UniProtKB/TrEMBL annotation:
It is found in: Cytoplasm. The keyword Lyase applies. It catalyses: 2-deoxy-D-ribose 5-phosphate = D-glyceraldehyde 3-phosphate + acetaldehyde. It comes from the Bacteria. This is Deoxyribose-phosphate aldolase. SMART domains: DeoC. It comes from Blautia caccae. CDD domains: DeoC.
Amino acid sequence: MEQKEILSKVDHTLLAQTATWEEIKVICDDAVAYQTASVCIPPSYVKQAAEYLGDKMPVCTVIGFPNGYNTTAVKIFETADAVKNGAEEIDMVINLGWVKEGRYDLVKEEIQAVKKACGGKLLKVIIETCLLTEEEKIRMCRTVTESDAEYIKTSTGFSTHGATIDDVKLMREHTGSDKKVKAAGGISSFADGEAFVKLGADRLGTSRLVKAAKAQQ
């Protein structure tokens, strides 16, 4: 695959706790220059980034990040606030405690509530695969399939590890054909990106591929 094709599937990401506006601006500029799918940034910078970018690049942000144990009401508020500030895409973290309790009904209700708060914007559901058993991953694939979310996403990148080949295979196998898959965390090279895309990943959450492309110039 050509690098340009892989980059077009990248959510160019900067979610470090210490991220400054100057660093976010660089991420935004690079996303435009390399024509990524979106720029994924902390909620506190969404309004600035949306105003800075205009219609040149969609802004994506994270909700309930990175632990997912905020109340549903808080996630709904975060989402509505992000959309009001200009976010075009929302990546939410599920309540992993509910998964461990087998409360997939509550997980689905929360996904639906957040999706409603998106006001038609794209929703990606982060299930944090590294903290789930095989059966829990499969059940979450089914739960997301039954929901109105557009994507299921592997990881926050803030836990024990990110996307793996096996997890993306499993997600593509057990998630409905009308849902898309985002692999995130640990994608460090174009070879990694191509491997995940060929397995069925529609989006790649990473900062490293744009950096790799810049280093080649």
